[in-house]
Amino acid sequence: MTSGLDASFVIRRSESFALNVSLQVARGSTHALIGPNGAGKSTIVEAIAGLLAVDDGSIGVDGVTWDDPSSGVYLSPQVRSVAVMFQDGVLFPHLSVSQNVAFGPMSRGMPRAEVRTRVADWLRNVDLAGFDDRLPSELSGGEAQRVALARALILDPDVLILDEPFASLDVSSRSSVRGLIQQRLAMFKGAAVVISHDPTEALLLGDVVHVLEAGTIVQSGTPSSIRLSPATDYVADVAGVNLVRGFAGGGQVAVGTHELAIVDHDVSGSVLVSFHPRTVTLHPDEPRGSARNTWRTTIESIEPRGETVRVQLGAPMALTAEVTASAIASLDLSEGSAVYVSIKATELSVESAAISDV
Amino acid sequence: MTRRVPTKPPIALVALAIVGVLFFLIPIVGLLVQTEWSELPTHLSSDIVLDALRLSLIASVLATVLAAVVGIPIAYVLARVPFRGKSLVRALVLLPIVLPPVVGGAALLFALGRRGVVGEPLYDATGIVLPFSMAGVVIAVTFVAMPFIVLTVEAALRNLDVRYEGAAASLGAGSWTSLRRVTLPLIAPAIVSGLALTWARAFGEFGATITFAGNIQGRTQTMPLAVFVALESDRGAATAISLVMVVVAVLVLVLLRDRWWGKR
């Protein structure tokens, strides 16, 4: 039997909608699930947590069955070793920070003194020492998510589910919470599942990324394989973004030997630059214009996708460009041909990245 | 701070609203004008008034406790447990709100009276007679007032984000722990306002009480009944008792102001 989470199940929510997924998450690894609203992401969370029973198939952890209608096994949520960090935290608003974190151990009957030490340890682990007596209403979004993470991890669960952990956060707290979650996931011994609608987060956190559309996993793979060869239009649209890591300073981001001009002159340190392939334009000759990022490269592959074509570009920076099929014809582009790339600095979204990203 | 310019309301609407407010104000003014203030201490210290006040307070508080003990579980079952015929059960429980209280009292009499379906075997077995007793007063006012706590608490449970209870369950809380530590504290404001409504309804109950429990001073004559009797014989006493009830009602409104409507 594999160690970790093994979930292959069907849930029929209505006549027309059935969720049919298969997830095998080994201990110590993190799988990310991305998909549009209504794809069934939260149903998966509820099924693994035991808030919803599956109609077919089974869910098990380390060879122990949690839910399997064919053998009549169904473990209630409180006996499953699973912790969920819900979207928006879902902290108990009437309990203080330390009471929230202590809720799990207390419910499972841990002695008070031990609970107290553990809670103190975990508040330190999420950089919230001294926040014990605050109420959730007195916390910022980022602090609330830290509490939710501590509340989930204090039980040392076999399975950890992070449901849209960044959806309610503003950009500034997002990268610090993401850094913390990455750091904690690296130490986590169980199987972790991250649910997200934001491809950047999913690609960063997941060792394996699954794309869920209309109740079915349409593509699974490593972040880079998903990014470079998206299987459906939805994947291409949301996950097929260009992501480059670099080092920012003075309105420039150094990516390898190349430099990208960006708008923000104040950002510095490790950053993540993302931009959509359709913002990358191709030219047969060196362009003159307002785009400050222009360089010469070669076309590695051309992949038609209906009306548009995804063009993979090589050194100095592996990128994808999305252009119309007619543009390819009129520019007379083919694999191996040289081309000029240009991207406007305003199209680049720059986010500071935790040290562990680099 | 931006200041929002208030929209100009239609004059006709404001005029009607003023008429409506006067409609509420005039009876209170009438009561205050009629009150013989110098006689007030005498009236209020009479046996009739003190008996009625004591009985009203005891019956309304007991009814509120009973309503909480039984009504909150009804609300929970209606909000959370799926079963067939739920809308029928809900209609049955809320019926006393729309049913004329006299009819409620009569129905109680038919069921719990000495010749009643339940009353007769109860009397034969234990010798207990419910009508025309203080216990009868409590039963009558509970019957009429309990639907208010059911209504308020069920609405609060339905509006409660189910994810709180989901979070509690996945953190290892059993259904009882979850109820005690998460659900009930989260709907506490609704429970308080439901209990206040229930208590106020019980305190003012007239029709079911007089029909089922009768009008015996010191045993079943509550404040509203005493007012009704005094109106025939001693208007001074009637205004005095009414005044006490107005004061108690205003006190409850003031005490619950923040909880009931939130701080505005």
The count of DSSP E runs of length 2 or more, i.e. the number of strands of chain A, is: 21
Largest interface: A-B, 24 and 18 residues
Ends of chain A: how far apart? 35 Å
Computed structural class of chain B? mainly alpha
Q: Low-confidence parts of chain B lasting 5 or more residues at pLDDT below 50?
A: none
In CATH, what is the class of the domain at 45-222 in chain B? Answer: Mainly Alpha
CATH topology (level 3) name of the largest domain in chain A: Rossmann fold
> How large is the count of helical segments of chain B?
13
The gist of it:
The complex is a heterodimer of chains A (358) and B (264). Chain A is 25% helix and 35% strand.
Q: How would you explain this protein's 3D organization?
A:
The complex is a heterodimer of chains A (358) and B (264). Chain A is α+β, with helices and mostly antiparallel strands and 358 residues long. In chain A, 25% of the residues lie in helices and 35% in strands. Helices cover 77% and strands 0% of the residues of chain B. Chain B has helices spanning 11-34, 40-44, 47-80, 86-98, 101-112, 119-126, 134-159, 162-170, 175-186, 188-204, 207-212, 223-233, 235-261. Chain B is globular. At the A-B interface, strand 7 and helix 2 of A face helix 8 and helix 9 of B.
